[in-house]
Amino acid sequence: MSMIGSLRGRVVGRTTSLDKVAGVELLLEVAGVGYRVTTTPATLSRLPADEDVLLAIHHHIREADQRLYGFASFDERDAFEGLLAAHGVGPALALAVLATYAVPELAAILNNEDLNALCEVPGVGKKTAQRLLVELKATVVLPVLDADASPPGAVLRGGENALADVRDALSSLGYSTEEIRRAVATVSAEGESQADEADSGQLLKRALLALAGG
Q1: Fewer CB near the last or first residue (10 Å), C or N of the chain?
Q2: Intrachain domains 6-71 and 74-145 with the same fold
C-alpha cells in the first residue's frame, strides 16, 4: 500500500469551524484529483486559495478507514507523528496539541516540563499531561528537541539508579505500589544486566508499555 508523504496543489474547498482547536477539512486539488485533508484551523487560514501550496502529509491508515492530515511544514508533521507514538494519543488529540501550540512552543513546554501548559490543551487532564511529559521527553520523539535535548536518562532524577528513577516516575503518575512492583519486575526480567545499563528513559518507556499490556 502506497503512503502519501506530501501533496502540492490548490485549495478548492474548505470547511469552517467555530472551535479553534478542532480539526477542519480542506479539499486540495492535485493534477485534477481532489484530496480531502484534515488540518488545524490556523494552518487552513494561512493557505491561499489562488495559488499552489505544499502540504506535508501524514497518511493515517486503520483497518476500516484512511485519512490524510496536512501540515504547513515537515517539522510539524514529524511532531504530529511523535505525538501519535505516545501511548493513548490518537490523531484528534495530537491535532489538538498542535492546534494549541506551535512546534517550538511545544518543544519549550517539554524542555521546561510545563505541566500547566499541557493542561491547556482541550481533552488533556493533569494525569494525561504528566504521562505525556514523561513519555515524550523520555523518547525524544519531537525532532525539534534533538539539538537541545538532555542526555539520555537526564529527564528523570532523584534515584540511585535507573530502576529507582522508574519507580519514582510511576509513583508520580499515580500508579499503585503493586502496579509499580509488577512493571519494575517486568523490565528487570528482560535482562538484569541490561536494566542496570539502560537509561531511565528507556526503562520507563518499557514499564509504561508493560502497564498498558503492550
Answers
A1: N
A2: no
Q: Is the pLDDT of residue 141 over 60?
A: no
Helix axes 126-139, 103-112, angle to 10 degrees: 90
* Most distant CA atoms of the chain, gap in Å: 62
Task: Look at the pTM and tell me if it is higher than 0.85.
Answer: no
How is domain 6-71 classified at the CATH fold level?
OB fold (Dihydrolipoamide Acetyltransferase, E2P) (2.40.50)
- Opening angle at CA 208, ends 202 and 209, nearest 5: 90
Nearest to 19 by CA among 95, 117, 75, 114: 95
Structure confidence at residue 150 (pLDDT): 35
Cβ contact 79:144 at 8 Å: yes
Query: Using one digit for the tens of pLDDT, what is the confidence trace for 101-118?
Result: 888 888 888 878 888 888
Q: Per residue in 151-176, pLDDT tens?
A: 332 233 323 356 776 776 666 566 77
- Per DSSP, the residues of 37-79 read EEE-HHHHHHS-SSS-EEEEEEEEEETTEEEEEEESSHHHHHH
**81 pLDDT higher than 50:** yes
Q: Is the dihedral of CA 19, 20, 22, 23 positive or negative?
A: positive
- The fold of the 74-145 domain, in CATH, is DNA polymerase; domain 1 (1.10.150)
First to last CA, the chain: 26
